[in-house]
């Protein structure tokens, strides 16, 4: 368990800012205490300072996980967000897409979002912008990347892909043994 290097920090915060913008600061300076990000076995964990002090007492070889896993660095140092970060990203998200109930199931099976399944989209959503995908009831279902901007979506064909799938809460069941 160690702090992030400068390069890791830059890569990680660039990825987070695609989804929550300047609200990254709100993850660290919280009213309920100080929180930080730490790397352990190429995974980034989000943990409170108090729990970090307790985790430091456990030998590295015996430590499997601590805090919330936000994602993992690949071997070529690219960062991939895990679905476990969704609960922390959703409240601060700048851009969201809401799905119809019949499209929710398709998204939870790992499919991209098409226009027929779309209820609404946040204004000013740009193409290739990181987005949080929600149900009609505002339950965060996952995240992805916008394939079309909000303007392009209005004039698109009904079967056009609006958002590319990246992760969803259905992964808990599909990839249970690989998440963390």
TrEMBL record:
Its main location: nucleus. SMART domains: PUA. Pfam families: pre-PUA_NIP7, UPF0113. It is found in: Nucleus, Nucleolus. Interacts with pre-ribosome complex. Required for proper 34S pre-rRNA processing and 60S ribosome subunit assembly. The keyword RNA-binding applies. Residues 95-174 form the PUA domain. GO terms for biological process: ribosome assembly. SUPFAM superfamilies: Pre-PUA domain (SSF88802), PUA domain-like (SSF88697). InterPro entries: NIP7_N, Nip7_N_euk, PUA, PUA-like_sf, PUA_sf, Ribosomal_synth_fac_NIP7, UPF0113_PUA. GO terms for molecular function: RNA binding. The keyword Nucleus applies. Keywords: Nucleus, Ribosome biogenesis, RNA-binding. One of its GO terms (cellular component) is nucleolus. This is 60S ribosome subunit biogenesis protein NIP7 homolog. Belongs to the NIP7 family.
């Amino acid at each position: 368990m160690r702090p992030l290097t400068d390069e890791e920090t830059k890569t990680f915060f660039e990825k987070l800012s695609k989804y929550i913008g300047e609200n990254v600061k709100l993850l660290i300076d919280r009213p309920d205490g100080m929180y930080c990000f730490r790397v352990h076995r190429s995974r980034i964990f989000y943990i409170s300072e108090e729990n970090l002090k307790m985790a430091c007492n456990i030998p590295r070889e015996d430590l499997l996980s601590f805090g919330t896993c936000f994602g993992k660095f690949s071997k070529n140092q690219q960062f991939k967000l895990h679905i476990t970060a969704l609960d922390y990203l959703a409240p601060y998200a700048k851009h969201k897409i809401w799905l119809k109930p019949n499209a929710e199931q398709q998204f939870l099976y790992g499919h991209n979002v098409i226009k027929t399944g779309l209820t609404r989209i946040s204004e000013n959503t740009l193409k290739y912008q990181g987005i949080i995908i929600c149900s009609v009831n505002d339950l965060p279902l996952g995240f992805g990347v916008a394939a079309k901007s909000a303007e392009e979506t209005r004039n698109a064909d009904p079967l056009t892909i609006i958002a590319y799938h990246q992760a969803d809460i259905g992964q808990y069941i599909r990839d249970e043994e690989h998440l963390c």
